[in-house]
Amino acid sequence: MAGPIADKPWTRIAATAAALLLVWPMARGENGSNPAGKVKPAPRETSLGKLRGTTIIRSVAASPCNRHVAWMGKHRKKLWIVAGGVRGKEYDGILSPGIVFSPVGGRVAYGAIRGDKQLVVVDGTAGKEFEAIGQGSIVWSASGKAVVYAGRRQNKWRVVAGGAEGKAYDSVTGLVMGPDGRRSAYVAARGKKWLAVVDGQESKEYDGVGRPVFSAGGKRPAGGVPGGRVAYSAQLGKGYMVVADGALGKLCDGIGRDGPVFSPDGRRLAYFAQRGDKQLVVVDGKEGKSYDAIMPWSIVFSPDGKRVSYVAAIGEKWLAVVDGAEGKQYDGIGGGRIVFSADGKRVLYGAILGKRQMVVVDGVAGKAYDAIGRTRGFSGDGKRVAYAARRGKKWLAVVDGAEGKEYDGIGEGTPVFSPDGKRVAYAAQRGKKHVVVVDGAEVGEYDGIGGGVVFCGRGNRAAFIAARGKKWVVVVDGVAGREYDGFIRGSRLIRRGPASLQALMLRDLEIFRVEISITEP
Fold this sequence. Notes:
The protein is mainly β. Strands 1, 44, 45, 46, 47 and 48 form a 6-stranded antiparallel beta sheet that branches. The protein is flat. About 45% of the residues are buried.
């Protein structure tokens, strides 16, 4: 069970800024110019609170929507959470993993210790006390409207949803919620048997049950329950199956540890199964070809759900399988993942042949390099391809097969395309200096790049957060904005609209949500 989070007494408040800074990592493994003149960034600051000497710096966290922050404070033996600028009640401890933000809306939940009891606090309101709260069991719905968790009382575990306690079990695990928050599912133990509990309804008992999965698309069979489909793997004796929407699948000798995978629209379902010493992928109940192995977590549907891919092995060779069609055999498939274009018509993946690596696009292998970066993909319209590659000790960006200038590193998460696919940018490192390269031209020279590279405005202006000495600025199309002491670890520069950006910045120990409007000539 989780223990309290503690921190050594913190006395150097000046260290706050440095602790919150994040230099964008460079991959180790063209702009510059304004299309139509200089832009005029207009920032608007909203204070989200000021850090104090009691703040535990490593606890400062940004919400997934990048609009909210929360942190933990400590004085003597008491701890508390500050969220939305409001200091919560003091507790004897805060349970790991600490602050749990909702995916949207900036709502906050966390587990706390009070005496010999544990409880969950949601938006500042404390729930019922338990002997223990399940580690990592606090789960928000994708909509941020609902939260569930598991608590133990009198050696029995119960799931709490909407403040109401569910049935008692010997153990509870794998707690998940449907996309709209109306449905929940988890795995429960009763004696030596396991069962899935979906919306409070128990399945039959099994010898084992895998973590349930909800579809994101919310598609359901006729007469089914709204709020998404649900599936999980189950064991009966020596046989295994996938149960989807209550319907039992065909028995096999094993189910892949990644379990069932829904297409983005929720209409289709795939998983890989073991039969004897062979493995195969089952899509919509139909078994595919048998292979010596299927790479775990390699099943990927296209964005429209019409196509499906995975990585398989024949002997010691690996190949990509797309809609049942086999690609060329390689010594490895980089990352074990296949990337579809947004329209699902094109496919790419990294491949390993001997000591060399290359990117394969629509079945055609590109130039071989010593390493390929983890970020590789298509432009939004699917017409262009970009990735980072290493030759010797130098890294370069490859865009549509054309090599860029060599650098000591290329920023993680780049290259990136503009929304219309016409422009491409990436962060790069040369010695101790950093630049952003837009359409082959370098933008300035900085001491660090952080928070991502995004495009905004009618002219698709490149924007990023950069360090100049000990100060950080938001740079839009080469124009630097106000100076700050840093930006919040885990946050990023995001595009809020066609001509607006947003970042979470720090100045004089005060955290600001900075919204930047872009005026173009």
